[in-house]
Amino acid sequence: MGPDVTGNGGFHRSAVIDLGSNSVRLVVFDGISRNPAPIFNEKVVLRLGRGLNATGRLNEEAVPLAMEVMARFNAIARGMEASPFEVLATAAVRDASNGPEFVAGLRARLPGVPIRILSGEEEADYSATGVLCGIPDANGLVADIGGGSLELIRLENGRKRNACTLPLGVIRLNDRADGDLARARALVDEDLSRVDWLDDVQGQDIYLVGGAFRALARLQIARTAYPLNIVHLYSLPPETAREMADWIIGAGRRSLERLPGVPRKRLEDTPYAATVLRRLMRRTQSRGVVFCVDGLREGWYMRNVAASVAANDPQDAVAHEMCRMLGRSMTLPGRLADWTAPLFVQEDEDARRLRHVACGLSDVGAHDHPEYRAEQTYLRILRLQGVGFTHPARAFLSLTLAVRYGADLSMDYLQPSRLLLDPMRFGHAVALGQALRLAYSVSGGTEALLDGTRLECEGGVLSLHFAPGRDVVQGESVRRRLERLGAALGLSVKIRDH
Q: String of b and e for 295-324 (b: at least 16 CB within 10 Å)?
């Protein structure tokens, strides 16, 4: 998203430091947008919570390093003029006997910066809000794993119903089990058995939040050579998720290290995260898992920075913002949605929404080099950061827009869409892309020229109608693109003048 210019002529930036039991991370967000746009994101693994279960204190070796890292993060956030800027401390600081002493040291090094020690309920609230940032109508169980605690939140139609905090963070679970995975499994089962409301999420999705869960996704992506190296909204059916967890629990560190791009600093934690996931799935009979990058930090952003736009649809918002930044008309997308509707009368609501988003994104390659426009647009949409698109939705939209710019369907760069879309959805994307390509040929990207033309499907014939005086835009390119659209739909074509 683009920067939001403030009244004093500067750029609106906000920052949050997430001080957890395992790591500390600074994220600086740019602007006020429905889809958080991080422009700085850095993590340092400290393991402040190591040994907490035995000593009741923060890891003494990590405290000095934490002070250094926090002073550096403070300088960066201040240098970027971020406001609001806040520190959120979670389970380790919350539970440690020397937590107040540690926070006093932080206040001396970060004068004027609010430092909040979140309760378990507050941590769960922020995590739930983060998940809802990308999936507003989420139903199921949010599981946010940290180093010290596991937050569980039941969501029903986008609303939080129940929440609890359990001492099942990966560092604490390792400590409680003395490094014994069998003991860890028993501890997880014991703690989960006390959460009665988990009976209310039987057979629903589990939304996985937190670095240790993200590490599981990265391992699975590397292991399976999955075509999209994006964790956010990566989803697995239950049998695949169970097999993944069992594989990670049973695999040795050396075999995991051989995978490309593995999160090496997380490998010590992954067997415990996989154990928690396996037992959660067993307890809830989950229908699948969805990995979410948005969590506590994004929840803080939505509540403290972007509350004014929280009610907006995240997919519509990204289409609107990209159209504003890269397109040539803010009004044409709505007209395109109406113009293409006769081609897809059987579409369901999800397909209709994606078609409208595709229309909003249909001119984002306007300023790219024409030789690379199709590929550039494909990759831009496929790899968008931090938006609420599932991986199949990314594959659909990127293919649609590549075809809109004349992509050769045999090109290698389209392989992710071939792998992530079934033949029907692939064909649907091609047809919509051809329809948009035709629309831009007819209109030149202007609403005035598109008006007075319409598409009609009847009796196996696709007709392009021109109102009197509009036939001047007919030409070889229009006829050729109409024929390609007809071929994509399996229809013969005709141009009609009225």
A: bbbbbbbbeebbeeeeeeebbebbbbbbbe
Nearest residue to 77 (alpha-carbon basis) of 3, 13, 11: 13
Same structural domain for residues 283 and 408?
no
Domain that holds residue 76: 13-117
Tell me the DSSP string of 339-377. Answer: HHGGG-TT--HHHHHHHHHHHHTTTTTTTS-TTTHHHHH
Cβ(172)–Cβ(49) below 8 Å: yes
E strand or H helix at 81, and its extent? Answer: none
The C-alpha atoms of residue 59 and residue 45 are separated, in whole angstroms, by 13
pTM: 0.93
When divided into structural domains, the chain yields a total of 3
Distance set, CA 140 to CA 50, 201, 208, 263, 376 (Å):
31, 6, 11, 28, 36
Q: Are residues 31 and 164 in the same domain?
A: no
In a structure prediction context, what are the per-residue pLDDT tens digits for the chain, which is 498 residues long?
333 333 333 469 999 999 999 999 999 999 999 999 999 999 999 999 999 999 999 999 999 999 999 999 999 999 999 999 999 999 999 999 999 999 999 999 999 999 999 999 999 999 999 999 999 999 999 999 999 999 999 999 999 999 999 999 999 999 999 999 999 999 999 999 999 999 999 999 999 999 999 999 999 999 999 999 999 999 999 999 999 999 999 998 889 999 998 888 889 999 999 999 999 999 999 999 999 999 999 999 999 999 999 999 999 999 999 999 999 999 999 999 999 999 999 999 999 999 999 999 999 999 999 999 999 999 999 999 878 999 999 999 999 999 999 999 999 999 999 999 999 999 999 999 999 999 999 999 999 889 989 999 999 999 999 987 766 567 889 999 999 999 999 999 999 876
Strand, helix or coil at 80?
Answer: coil
Same domain, 93 and 230: no
Distant-in-sequence, close-in-space partners of 353: CB < 8 Å, separation ≥ 6: 315
Contact at 8 Å (CB) between 103 and 116?
no
**Is residue 166 a contact partner of residue 152, using CB atoms and an 8 Å limit?**
yes
How big is the chain, counted in residues? 498
CATH code of the domain containing 435: 1.10.3210.10
HEC profile of 102-117: HHHHHHHHCCCCCEEE
CA–CA separation, 496 and 498 (whole Å): 7
Amino acid code (one letter) for 311: A
Domain end: 69, 92, 117, which one?
Answer: 117
Residue 399 and residue 426 share a domain = yes
Cα 353 from Cα 372, distance rounded (Å): 28
287 vs 148: CA distance, rounded Å? 27
